[in-house]
Amino acid sequence: MGKPVTVVWDRSFLGYDLGGDHPLNPVRLDLTVRLATGLGVLDGVDVVSPVTATDDEIELVHRPGYLSAVQAAPTAGWDVGHGLGTADNPVFDHMHEASALVVGGSLTAARAIASGEADRAVNIAGGLHHAMPDHAAGFCVYNDCSVAIAWLLRNGFDRIAYVDVDVHHGDGVQTAFWDDPRVLTVSLHQNPMSLWPGTGWAREVGGEGAEGTAVNVALPPGTKDGAWLRAFHATVPALINAFQPQVIVTQCGADTHKEDPLADLHLSVDGHRAIYLALRELVTRHDAKWLALGGGGYELLRVVPRSWTHLLATVLDRDLDPDLPLPADWVAHATRIAPNWPLPASMTDGCDPVHQPWGGDGDDAVDKAIRDTRRAVFPLHGLDPDDPRD
């Protein structure tokens, strides 16, 4: 890595607050930055403040009428529709402004890449991948992932791969680029039969003229580190190699963790670290730019801060020893937030995320998911779905 990494952060991101006991609590962002700072990950890094996205930029993906609804919602006093005012997406003060700032954070990162200032950029406040062109969904008001990709397509890039490792299907991004052969969307997620939003089947491969550019790996509940990584390595590297993207955008949701309260995959923080290392290896091997975003993650104290501190360290090439103890001042701060919540002692869950390579002949549910995906999309890229060498 030659150029400095752009890290986009400002405490104003904490204004994206859905309120009350909503699972998407912005404290997870604050705790992540505090932990990364305490461990020296951000030492000497020029952290860049986000620039709020304009309406025109947001409308690269979202419809003008939807923006008007979001802007009016806090004072409307009636049902504004568009998925707003629900339990998942409650209306909150300054909703448009807070949401536009998250989009602006991802656009700030994208601009650093497009300008040549950085080859890698990260916005942990981003990753709101469920928002659709005309409605909110899944805690997401605006889809910063899609807006950043759409902006990059207008500013010098024509082959972008989006890799989503959140436990939920990256449905909003897939929808945004369903018919666009310039964007490869890859999502590894819990099986849609067992988890919202109920989409993301292997047979969803892209629209007419873009067949093969939507890729979905639907993993069974209970999938652990080794099996998840086997599925990743059996599908993603070959497709990235065939597609040859200029930019790889990653949505790095931490809700695949075994302690996450909203889903049922069983990964560890060590597994997350292995995923981030695998993503970096893809970026390096293909000499691609890297735009890394946050995403889901609802174990706010024990999981997200450690996982995304590993993410920041990985993007910055400042890999952390998993056995590194958590700083005492960070532990004290987290304890004040949740006095009765037991905290981990170090940056590891004590798991070894080793995986067995896919051999083409396994018969468990993960191997079936691998075969389903490979058979659906590999031939569309000139790859042999049954040959483990592809």
UniProtKB/TrEMBL annotation:
Superkingdom, taxonomy of origin: Bacteria
Biological or metabolic pathway of the protein: Ketone degradation; acetoin degradation
SUPFAM superfamilies reported for this sequence: Arginase/deacetylase (SSF52768)
Keywords, alphabetical: Acetoin catabolism
Record InterPro entries: AcuC, HDACs, His_deacetylse_dom, His_deacetylse_dom_sf, Ureohydrolase_dom_sf
Pfam family, one: Hist_deacetyl
GO MF annotation terms: histone deacetylase activity
GO terms (BP aspect): acetoin catabolic process; epigenetic regulation of gene expression
Domain Histone deacetylase, first and last residues per copy: 22-314
Recorded family membership: Belongs to the histone deacetylase family.
Name listed for the protein in its UniProt record: Acetoin utilization protein AcuC
Source species taxonomy: Bacteria, Bacillati, Actinomycetota, Actinomycetes, Pseudonocardiales
